[in-house]
Amino acid sequence: xxxxxxxxxxxxxxxxxxxxxxxxxxxxxxxxxxxxxxxxxxxxxxxxxxxxxxxxxxxxxxxxxxxxxxxxxxxxxxxxxxxxxxxxxxxxxxxxxxxxxxxxxxxxxxxxxxxxxxxxxxxxxxxxxxxxxxxxxxxxxxxxxxxxxxxxxxxxxxxxxxxxxxxxxxxxxxxxxxxxxxxxxxxxxxxxxxxxxxxxxxxxxxxxxxxxxxxxxxxxxxxxxxxxxxxxxxxxxxxxxxxxxxxxxxxxxxxxxxxxxxxxxxxxxxxxxxxxxxxxxxxxxxxxxxxxxxxxxxxxxxxxxxxxxxxxxxxxxxxxxxxxxxxxxxxxxxxxxxxxxxxxxxxxxxxxxxxxxxxxxxxxxxxxxxxxxxxxxxxxxxxxxxxxxxxxxxxxxxxxxxxxxxxxxxxxxxxxxxxxxxxxxxxxxxxxxxxxxxxxxxxxxxxxxxxxxxxxxxxxxxxxxxxxxxxxxxxxxxxxxxxxxxxxxxxxxxxxxxxxxxxxxxxxxxxxxxxxxxxxxxxxxxxxxxxxxxxxxxxxxxxxxxxxxxxxxxxxxxxxxxxxxxxxxxxxxxxxxxxxxxxxxxxxxxxxxxxxxxxxxxxxxxxxxxxxxxxxxxxxxxxxxxxxxxxxxxxxxxxxxxxxxxxxxxxxxxxxxx
Amino acid sequence: xxxxxxxxxxxxxxxxxxxxxxxxxxxxxxxxxxxxxxxxxxxxxxxxxxxxxxxxxxxxxxxxxxxxxxxxxxxxxxxxxxxxxxxxxxxxxxxxxxxxxxxxxxxxxxxxxxxxxxxxxxxxxxxxxxxxxxxxxxxxxxxxxxxxxxxxxxxxxxxxxxxxxxxxxxxxxxxxxxxxxxxxxxxxxxxxxxxxxxxxxxxxxxxxxxxxxxxxxxxxxxxxxxxxxx
Lengths: 658, 230
Prior knowledge:
The complex is a heterodimer of chains A (658) and B (230).
Chain A lengths: L8 H30 L17 H22 L7 H12 L5 E6 L4 E3 L7 H11 E7 L4 E4 L6 H9 L9 E7 L7 H40 L19 H23 L5 H31 L8 H15 L2 H26 L2 H36 L14 H58 L5 H32 L6 E5 H19 L2 E5 L6 E5 H18 L5 E9 L2 E9 L8 H4 L18 H11 L3 E7 L2 E9 L4
Parallel strand pairs in A: 7-9
Antiparallel strand pairs in A: 1-2, 1-5, 3-4, 3-5, 6-8, 9-10, 10-12, 11-12
Helix pairs in contact in A: 1-6, 1-8, 2-3, 2-5, 2-6, 7-8, 10-11, 11-12, 12-13, 13-17, 14-15, 15-17
Chain B lengths: L2 E5 L3 H13 L3 E5 L2 H11 L3 E5 L7 H9 L6 E5 L4 H9 L4 E4 L4 H16 L11 E4 L2 E4 L4 E4 L2 E3 L3 H12 L7 H9 L9 H13 L9 E4 L3 E4 L3
Parallel strand pairs in B: 1-2, 1-3, 3-4, 4-5
Antiparallel strand pairs in B: 6-7, 7-8, 8-9, 10-11
Helix pairs in contact in B: 2-3, 6-8
C-alpha cells in the first residue's frame, strides 16, 4: 500500500504543475538568453571568466570601434568628399575629441596619425599602449600582428589591413584601450552593461539548466505514474485513450503545423517585452497541456498494450479478419483465390503494357507470400495430424501448442486439445470411480468379516458341543456352509473389484505352463477323484514358457479347475490340453456341464452369473469373471465356448523364447 | 500353564477365542484395545499375544511397535485386512504370525501352539548335527528318518520323506517337477504327470498348519517347489 502512495492524485497534480513551472522557466530564460546570444553579449567561451576585457563582447565592441577608426583614417588619407563631411565630423569628434578611451597610432609610411601625444615614434607609442593595458599592433614592414587582445580577430585584421593597401610595405598601426576607462564612451558604456548583466546571465543559464533537468525528471515521474492509482495495479485509461491512435497523430501534426505557421507570422512583427511574455506564456501553456495530454495518452496506450489495438488500422484489419472468419471455409478460400488472381492479372497487365519494374517485384512478392503461406499451412497440418495420432494412440494428455498455430488451424488445435482433455478427463473420472468402488468394497468387506468371524467361531463352538438332535446338527451344518460361502464371496468381491479397477500390482516372471498344469493337477487330484471326474491331460513334453504373475496365473487355472469341480457332471471325463499354436500357448479345459446351460458364453464370464441358476452350491459366481479379468490383465486371451453341454474355456498367452 | 493375552475390540470374538484356548488348557487374559493390551502385558506377563489390527485408541500395528521396544513375546496378528501389503507390514514391524479374519479356530489353535513351543524352547538350542535339517519348527533328522513339526512327530511315506529331504537339503532352491522326479525316482521324467504335485500336497497337508497358506513348502507357480530357511 505504501508503495503505491507515490501514485496518488495529489502527487500527480503537483507533478503536472511542477513540470509546467519548469517549462515556463526554461522557455522564458531560453528566449531571453538566446536574445543575448544573438547580441553577442553572451558567449560560451566567456563563461569561465568574468573580466570584461577577456570577453567576446568586448572584442565585438572593439571590432566595431576599429571599423569606424579605419574608415576615419581612410578619410584622412584621401581628399575629403562633401558627402562624407558629416560622417567625418562625427568620427573626428569620436576619436580625436579627447574623450575616447581608444587610442591609436597610425603611420602609412609617410605620415603619422594619432590621438596620443604628437611627437611619439612607433616604439614610444607601443610603450604607451602597453601602459594603457589592452593593446593591439600591426607592423606592415614585417606583416606581423601583436598585442594582448586575443581570440578571434578576423574582423579587426580585415579592417586594419585595408589601411595598408598601397603596397609600400612600411608603416604600422597601434591600438590601445585605457583599461581604467576614464572617458565616457561606447567602450565604457559596454563595460557597464556587461558588468551589470553578465552575472545575471550566468545565474539565468544555471537556473535554465536546472529547470531543464527538473522538467525531465518530473516528466519521467509522470510517465511512470500515469494511469496508475493507489488502489490497484491496473492501468486506468481515460476518455482520450479510447480515441483512435491515428486521431492523436493527426491532432499532433495539425497543432504543430498551426504553431509553426503562427510563430512565423509573429516573428515578422515587433512586440514589446510584456506582451511578448504574455503571448509566449499562453502559447507555452496551451502547447504544454496539449502535448502532455497526447504524450501521456501514448504512454498509457503502450502500458496497456492498446497502442495498436485502439488504432483505426487495427480496427480495419480486425474487421477484415472477422469478416473472413464468418465466411465458410470454402468461400474464404474462394475470396483469397479471387483476390490473388486479380492482383496477379493486374501485375501482369502492368508488366506487359508499361514494362513496369515494380510489377515484377509485386509478382515475386505475391508468389512468395503464397508459397510461404502454403508451406506454413502444410507444417501446421502436419502438427495437427501428429497431435491427432498421439491422442488416438492413447496419449490423452498430449497437448498441441495452440499459440504456434494461426487462423483456422489454431481453432482446430484448440478443439483437438479440448477433445483430448475431455477424453483424459473421462478416463480419469472412470479410474477414480473404479478406485473409489474398490475402496468402498474393501472397507465393506472388512466390516463384514468381523461379524463373520464371530459367526464362524460360534458355529464351530456349537459343533463342538455334543448335539443329540440330528435336525439341529443339520441346521448347524447348513449355517457353517453358508457362512463359509459368505467368506469366499467377500474375498472374491474384493479381488474382482481390485482387478477391474487395475489397483493390483503384477509381478511378471517367466512361467512354465506345463509345470503349472502339473502343479494344479496335483492340488485337484483327489477332489476330482472324489467327484468321479477323470482328468485327461495332453501336454507337450517340452516346457512352454510365458510371461505371467505366478500366483495370479495359478488363481486363473485354479478357478477353472474349481469351476469344473463345481459344475461338471459326475463320473465324466475332463479334458485339459496345452498346445503351441502360432507363437501362442493355448490352454483349454473341457467338461460336461451337470446342468443345462442357458447362458451365453459372454454372460457366463460376467460377474455373479453362474451356470446353474439355482445358487444352491458354494460359488460366488465370480470365479470365471476373476479368471477372465486376470488373464486379460496379464496380456492373455480368454474364451468361453458352449456346445450344448460341452463347456470349454480357452486361454492363450504369447510364448516367450527361453 | 501358559498364559495368553487376547486383544480385540469385538468382545464376542475375544470370548470365542477364550473358549477355544481354555479347551486347550491355556490361561486367558482379555484386552479390548491396544493401550489396555500394553498395560495388561506389564501386569500379567503372558507367553503369547493375539491381537487385532483395527482397534480404538491404539491400533494393533502401533501397539506391536511399542511392545517390540521392550519385549520379544510372540505376537499373532488377527486382522480383517487380507491384503498382501497388510500382511507384510504386520510381519515387518515385529509380529510373528498373521492370520486373516474370518479364521479357522483350529488353525489359530495350531498356530498358537507352534508359537508357544518355539518361544518356550528358544533357550535350549537343538544340537546341530550334519544329518539334522531344520527350518522354523520343521526338523528332519536323517539319521533317525524322523520328521517333527514343533516337536510333534509327523508320519511320511518314503517318497514324501525323500522329497522333503531334497528340499530341506537345498533351502531356497526351486526344484521343478521333473527335477524332483529325476532325483527321487532316479529315472528320466518322460511322462511326468501329477505324481510329484500330489506327493507335495500330501506332505503339505501333513506338515503345514494351513496347507493353503504353506509356511514351509512354498509353491512357485509355473516353476516348481522350494523350502526357505526361516
